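User: Hey, my collaborator sent me this sequence without any context and asked if I could get a structure. I don't really work with proteins. Can you help?
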Amino acid sequence: MADLDFDNTDLKDYKASGALEGKVAIVTGGNSGIGQAVAIAYAKEGAKVVIGYLGDEEATEKTLNLIEKYGGEAKALSGDLGKSENCEKLVRFALDSFGQIDILVNNAGYQYPETSPLDIKDENMLKTFEIKAFAMLYLTRAALPHLKRGARIINTASINAYRGHSDLIDYAGANGAMVSMTRSLARRLVREEIAVNGIAPGPIWTPLITKTFGGLNEKVAEDFGQDVPAGRPGQPYELAKAYVFLADPQNSYMTGQFLHINGGDYMSS
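Assistant: No problem. I've predicted the 3D structure and written it out in structure-token form, which is a compact way to encode the shape of the chain:
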């Protein structure tokens, strides 16, 4: 099993080009895993970062310290983004902190693995959709009046939206909704020069994997990512450049698309 790198310390060697100088980004779920990697990379590229998170104050403080260590500037606000009022608070917090919003990364998510559809609990299914699909639309709706031409919205979905997952039926469905809404928003906002794209990661080592799959079946966690053509799971920092690419103002003719970063596990047509 690959070593876990939950601190994204490999980003210390990240080579920035100043692509996001003068920008302000909101990154949800930005205190660990993929979101942490994105927040650090954006800060190194010159953006000021606002992290939306829920729980794990220690991880949040560590992320803020890493960003400061690398010469960036970031602030964080806790709140359940499955509730629209908290999404509005996060947008207001970003505006009060830095005066503008240029990039919105909807990355927060959670999953409740179940080996049988009969065991899917109503409250878990609702929470899964709230954190993934609902929060994405709530935040986009709250931020949109403040986004100018050239703004970027980037949504983290999952490979499971495309191929399904026998133990994550509701999670796959929530990510499928996210994919569809991303494409619909892209069509609506393209004339305003606001690009809406996403990334559908494959097996990536994050704290979420051990929190969820580890309790369900230790072998699932042990074998995680071993069956993809690359022969290993990805690390969060390996996705960072893709999020920078989608946020880069020079990437001006791409919208409604998803990048598939998955070690060759799924080849999108």
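In plain terms: Residues 1-6 have pLDDT under 50 and may be disordered. You can pass these tokens on to your collaborator as they are.
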